[in-house]
Write a structure and sequence with these properties.
With 231 residues, the protein is of the alpha/beta class. It has a domain at 38-194: Rossmann fold (3-Layer(aba) Sandwich). It has nine helices and ten strands. Strands 6-4-3-8-9-10 form a six-stranded parallel sheet, sandwiched between helices. A hairpin with a 5-residue loop joins β1 and β2 (36-37). The longest helix has 20 residues, at 6-25. The structure holds NADP nicotinamide-adenine-dinucleotide phosphate (NAP). Residues 45-48, 56, 59, 77, 80-83, 121-123, 143-144, 146-147, 154-155, 169, 193, 196-198 line the site of NADP nicotinamide-adenine-dinucleotide phosphate.
Length: 231
């Protein structure tokens, strides 16, 4: 078996160190999966979150893994455009439940951009606000597949695709009623999305348990504030 001479070994070590210095001085970062990215990769998890449940959390975590994201920002909607005639829980309650639910995951944060912006919530405004905060980052907008079914009718739809990639998360057995625009939206099936906010609201209203469908802190928040008692 041939052995490297001390000189050859030193040369190898020195080349290795030079490569490390080069990497460190490059603009960018190494992701949790070990890949080198020139820019931060940020997920924007948009939803009404009435309430946030474990399916949303698993979906965000899965998308973060598959797309190698550095962070996922949960963005509870202010006034959802397609629900102007429906009862939606107060935005501060939805925001606080989202903060409680995401607090323990170091990759998850929550943004108030949609809640603090006056008027109806449009995703184009969400994306512009987050882009202003992260001018260099690669953005990934994540939401439910049913929500994006009519995406081409959303305000400034084509401009949205210039700002972010779109990832639609689906429930098991989901089939799209409307064909999604070719090549614009990725789909990812998340088994835990068998949970739905509608179901959680109904169970809470009927006094049925919601333990383990939503994080423990959210169970307590719903009970303490009687969020769904009257709905
Ligand atoms: P929604 O109609 O309440 O939800 C439709 C379906 O998608 C439901 O099954 C819902 O399940 C699911 N879903 C919603 N958000 C999800 C998420 N983040 N992860 C996994 N499943 C999700 O949808 P929405 O909450 O009003 O809207 C979702 C996002 O799309 C928001 O950010 C909203 O601002 C945006 N949007 C924008 C426009 C526009 O710009 N014109 C129009 C519509 C929607 P759950 O009920 O269990 O969450």
């Amino acid at each position: 078996m041939s052995q490297a001479t001390p000189d050859r070994r030193m040369a190898e070590l020195s080349a290795y160190r030079e490569r490390q210095v080069e990497l460190v001085s490059q603009h960018g970062r190494r992701s949790a999966r070990g890949n080198w990215h020139a820019h931060a990769r940020i997920g924007i998890m948009g939803g009404t979150f009435d309430p946030i449940h474990n399916g949303h959390l698993v979906a965000a975590s899965e998308v973060a893994w598959v797309y190698d994201l550095d962070e996922v920002i949960f963005v509870p909607t202010g006034r959802p455009v397609f629900k102007l005639d429906k009862r939606v829980t107060n935005e501060e309650d939805r925001y606080l439940m989202t903060v409680i639910a995401t607090a323990s995951n170091p990759k998850f944060t929550v943004s108030r951009v949609d809640i603090d912006r006056p008027g109806v919530t449009y995703t184009i405004d969400t994306l512009r606000d987050i882009r202003a905060q992260y001018p260099e980052a690669e953005l990934f907008f994540i939401t439910g597949a049913d929500a994006v079914a009519e995406i081409m009718k959303w305000k400034d739809a084509n401009s949205m695709f210039d700002i972010a990639h779109f990832v639609a998360v689906t429930r098991p057995g989901y089939s799209s009623k409307v064909p999604l625009p070719e090549g614009k939206v990725d789909m990812l099936e998340i088994p835990a999305l068998a949970i739905s906010s509608t179901d959680v609201r109904e169970r809470a209203r009927n006094g049925e348990p919601v333990w383990y469908l939503v994080p423990d802190g959210v169970v307590q928040y719903i009970g303490k504030h009687g969020i769904y008692d009257e709905q």
